[in-house]
Every structure is written in C-alpha cells, then in structure tokens.
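Moderator note: this is an archived Q&A kept for reference. The question asked for a predicted structure of one protein chain; the sequence and the answer are reproduced below.
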Amino acid sequence: MKRPNLFVYVTLGLLVKIITLFKGQKITEKVKIKGPAIILSNHTSWFDFMYTTSAMYPHRVSYLAANKMFYDPFLGFFLRLARAIPKSLFQPDPAATLKAFKILRKNGIISVFPEGQISPYGTSLTPAFSIAKFLRKADVDVYKVIHHNAYFVNPPWSKNTFRGKIETSKALIISKEVLRTLNDQQIYDIVVAQIYHNASQYNKEKLYEYKVRNIKNLENVIYQCPSCSYEGLVAKTYHLACPNCSIELKYDLLGRIGGYGIDELYKNQEKTMQTKILKEPDFQLSSEVKLESFRNNRVVEVGYGKLTLNRTHYIFEGIIDSKQEKLIFEVKNAPTLPSDIGINVQIYEGNQLYQFIFEDPKLPTMFVHAGEFMYQLYKETNI
C-alpha cells in the first residue's frame, strides 16, 4: 500500500485548500504533526475529508474510507487517486488494518473518522469500540483534527453550501509513550471525549452566522412538530411547516429551526419513538423497500420487498436477483444503523452491503431511532 502520490497530492491539495478557505475554514489551534501518526476527526459533513486535507496540507494523509464510497464512479475515482484505504464499516476488516499499518511503518499519516458515519443532527455519534484496539496496535502518536461547525456550512441533509465560519483545531491527544500505558477502555474513553462536538451548543456561544439556503430534506431529519407532535413536517424553502397545527419553523442565520437547535428537536422525536416502543411490547416498523447491494464494482438495485424491524431482528422478505429470499439480521449485531437522509438505511454483514431504499423519506430516520434503541434495550437486558 503506497502513500498518496506527492505531485498529485500537492496539486490537488492546494486546490482543496483554496476551496475550503472560500467556504470559511480557519485553523484556530495548530500543532506540528509528523508521521508516523494517526489523526482522528469528527464527522458532520460530506466535506470533512476536504477540511481535514486542508488542515494537514502540505502533509500527505492516507484516509480510511467506507468501501461503499469506492463503488461510486465519481467518489471512487478521487479516493483511488488519493490512494485511500477501503474499509468495511461496523465489522472487522483485517485487510484494511494491515494496509494502514504498512503506511505507518513508512512514517505515513492515517486519518480516521471513528464515528464511521456522518451525524445527521450535528452532534458526534458514538464511535465503535474497535477504534481503541486499532490505536493500541498501531503504537503511534494520536492527534485530533476537529472541525467546529462544518455541519452548518455543509449540512448532510443538503447539497447547498451555507457559507460561514468553520473553525478547525489540531492537538495531540495521546502520545505513543502514554498509549502504551493504557488499556482499551481508557483509550476509548479518551477518543470519545476528544472528538466530541455539538454544533448547536458550540454556536450558542459563538453566534456565528451562516448564509441561509433552501432547507429541502431537513424535514426528513426533523419530521416531528415540536408543538403538536405531528409526524410529517413539510419543507418550504426556509421554513418547516406543520400541516396539522399550521406552525412554521424558520431556519435562521445561526442554524436554528424555529428557535430550537436541530439536535434538540432530533432528540425530542427520538424520545417519542423510545416511549412508543416501551409502551408497545409488540412494536414493529415495516415498509416496502427496494434493495441495493454490491454487484460488479457498483452499488445497484438487486431486489425489492418488505423490511420489518421488531425488538430482536431486521427481517427482509422479497425478491433478490429474481429469486424469493428472506434475510434476517439480529438487532444485537447492529449497534448503529447508517442512513442516507431521506433515502435509505444500511446493514453491513459479511463484508456485504444491504441498502434498503424507502419511498417515504422520513422512514429512514424513524428506523434509525427505533433500531438503535432496540440495540440499547438488548444491551440492558443482556448485561
């Protein structure tokens, strides 16, 4: 496994640097980082790879990236050009780990986003525990490169850029010498604390303003009305409107919606789902879906049917590759449920991707709320 080509990296890296400066990125805390090293970053935007590249420029960085991204013709081209390392999400991937260690042995720098997915509401998600084992075995200095408020500039629910300030901080969080004295739990606790960022809370203090653009698709992150609890808010350019009580929630310059932080509304509807699950012993979510998966180096539609979530399993019944099939995934093996907002949820098993596409665009978020709570219930009852 080779490090990124120097000429290509310097050339494209400079272009990335210019783009991110235009978007509003500023490095507020600096530290010299030299290889071998691992840098950890929070993940709230599709552009976080660019912001990290800009923060590290001109140093070459090798990224661990979800193997799903390599199957996209556009993203895959640039990831291969950057010699990124494909990694299976939310399951062991010894091949990716070995490739990363080879780069470290050549004094390279590896970038990892421990959350494994983009936060839909701007607050850091819980990393997989495997990051602690990866760092311990790597036996190199560990740094953080944290992007404050990238969520408001390039929110994952929009293709628009809401131009404004992004503050990036860099710091050493665990030296190689200290790393050798820590157990996995201690390493994990440091990682969780150090990469944590809550964009809404951060901007309550900073009060940075962001250019407001069309907020289409935010209604699939925040689908529940904070006034009457109706589930089905409608996006109207700069507002979310409730068809039931007629309230209108304006998206403002500070990244708030109706005066609320997006994280606050997201957590409120999450609690509503949890309360419903606790009150209904036979609770389940079910929907007609299309199924996508890996075929011939692409993610393509391979079937259709019904996806059902109950307290113990995700169950798909339908047609796959022209044959009647039934897939069963245990909730206990899915601590997190990745989702492309308003489109799908994803289950990874056996180095295979099962991507379920919904017609109702709010259902992916509802499945995330329900599925991740089912996992928590499993943990609590099986300690």
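Archived answer notes: The mean pLDDT is 92.
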